Amino acid sequence: MNTSEIKNKERALNEFLLVLRKIMVEPHICATALEITRKHIDDKHANVKIADELSATTSVKIPAVHSEADTLFLEMLKDLVRDEKALY
């Protein structure tokens, strides 16, 4: 792995940590994010719809062009909802 790849991974992790900190400070974001994800998980372009609604309704702002950390966060939300569905 070269230096720029390492720096990109480091930046993605730092960005992901910032979102997690925000969720810890504002716990209602988690419930809202999961609710939004449940609504859009099966939609075409689910990541875009989830990101747009999450950005519009919470203090978590996901830009139109998703970074690696944004994609990681959105995939984590979808995994949580899939796990939740699997339990039932």
Task: Provide the descriptors you would attach to this structure in a database record.
88 residues, mainly alpha
Describe the structure.
The chain is mainly alpha-helical and 88 residues long. 76% of the residues lie in helices and 0% in strands. The protein is built from four helices and no strands. The protein has helices spanning 3-25, 28-40, 46-57, 68-86. The mean pLDDT is 92.
Q: Based on DSSP secondary structure assignment, what is the total number of beta strands?
A: 0
The percent range for helix content is over 70%
Taken from the alpha-carbon principal axes, the silhouette is globular
Mean pLDDT: 92
Termini separation comes to: 42 Å
Q: Major β-sheet, in short?
A: none
What string gives the helices and strands in order? Answer: HHHH
β-sheet strand percentage: under 5%
Task: Summarize the entry for a quick read.
This protein is mostly helical and 88 residues long.
What topology does this entry show?
Elements: H1 3-25, H2 28-40, H3 46-57, H4 68-86
Helix pairs in contact: 1-4, 2-3, 2-4
